[in-house]
Amino acid sequence: MSALTDLLADWMPGQRWFAGKGRTWASVTEDGFFLDQGTPALSVHRVHVTYTDDVSETYLVPLSWRSSQDDDLAHAYVGAVGDNHAYDGMRDREATVPWLTHLVAASTVGPLHFHPAGVAYIPEGVPGDLISGEQSNTSLIYGETAIMKLFRRLEPGLNPDVEVHDALRTTENPHIAPLLGHVQIEGATEGEEPATVAFLQAFVPNASDGWRLATSSVRDLYAEADLHADEVGGDFAGEAERLGEATAAVHRDLARVLPTADVGTDWYGELATQLTARLDAATAIVPELAEHAEGLRTLYAAVADLTAPVTAQRVHGDLHLGQVLRTTTGWIVLDFEGEPARSLAARRELDSPLRDVAGMLRSFDYAARHMLVEQPGDPQRAYRAQEWAERNRSSFCAGYAAASGTDPAGSPLLRAFEADKAVYECVYEARNRPHWLMIPLTSLARLASS
Ligand SMILES: Nc1ncnc2c1ncn2[C@@H]1O[C@H](COP(=O)(O)OP(=O)(O)O)[C@@H](O)[C@H]1O
Ligand SMILES: O=P(O)(O)O[C@H]1O[C@H](CO)[C@@H](O[C@H]2O[C@H](CO)[C@@H](O)[C@H](O)[C@H]2O)[C@H](O)[C@H]1O
């Protein structure tokens, strides 16, 4: 291994966006080029990691280079290669400027191709500030007008976030933030499709994300020992209902501008097989799931027998309260990438819109229960959490039903999607926040028993 791959192999596992946590590395290779030769210089690397279970992943890693160590950037320090010091290019503000300069110029630099959407102003010459709460990707806010998301895990093909936002441009849907541009990288090998590296979107100012709003409502409820969820000042049910309406409006436009398919009853059988396979794979990673496996298999088997007609369409794929923003006028839905752990092809598949309804219902459970993690033995709070979750889950469904004409509540398909999401969450939590694993496990106990 070169000095740089050694350095990356030490540094990457500690990064939140690194999805290979818990896996053993078998090999690592890297190819890089300079995007900017200024001071600091900015290089961009594709880091290809193969694990001992034969899975491999390619990550995008921008590094900035300085000839001496800078104490102000200690938090971004990656390490030294010879006389040069490498920093995380997304945390070194000066190194974030070239991305937008190249987008404005529609440049090609080495294998990188910059594509401005050509519809709105892209700020130039300003540095980007890393958003707090970095998750699967890394986002920078430029001057409160644009936000650039850097996709960390590269996969050949257009990223669904870009594809969906591009398609929705003609709809003027009020629940979407406009696309400003995107960046593609050529395939690493001959014949491989380009992958999406970055996505630039209009920044929505003065907004608060749904997770923050929902959890302050739960906090309000806990503070009032004798009041119910509909009696406290921070009641969230009105917002949950509007969020249901917004979700239905987004689904309606997705079905208008992207392909749909009326699927036959075979679809249910295939779905039940997929859900069961995902349960089996997850149980191998999270042994605690075994306790619920029988109940979940029964739930999935019932899905195979359903016959109601389904129109499959493009969906969000990972809808939760952290993906929606409340502005002064209403809700904005973000991040149409789908679940980060799924392959790009799977994330682009047509699906039932109930997949997203289930995602949001899970999120109401999470918002209600996450404060119980610290106090697991408090039955009074557990009861109130349940009450808050139920109230907001049914308000969301009521809003969705009013706007779409279809009431999702009570559907067995919805229940199976909720269970599938909770199974996915068990793996996500086991890998990223093991102390939160009890949240999806508790929900599965409910979903698997009936
Ligand atoms: N267009 C936007 N305007 C304002 N804030 C945004 C915008 N897009 C994303 N954000 C903020 O960045 C956070 C992460 O964005 P997201 O697209 O969900 O990234 P990730 O894929 O890493 O989860 C969101 O929760 C939101 O707070
Ligand atoms: O936002 P991402 O696309 O990175 O989604 C991943 O991370 C989410 C956590 O931030 C995770 O969501 C889970 O935790 C949320 C609370 O933090 C909760 O609201 C969601 O309902 C729950 O699924 C998401 O599953 C994962 O893909």
TrEMBL record:
The lineage of its organism: Bacteria, Bacillati, Actinomycetota, Actinomycetes, Geodermatophilales. Transmembrane segments: none annotated. It comes from the Bacteria. Coiled coil: none annotated. This is Maltokinase. It catalyses: D-maltose + ATP = alpha-maltose 1-phosphate + ADP + H(+). Keywords: ATP-binding, Carbohydrate metabolism, Glycogen biosynthesis, Glycogen metabolism, Kinase, Nucleotide-binding, Transferase. Monomer. Its EC number is 2.7.1.175.
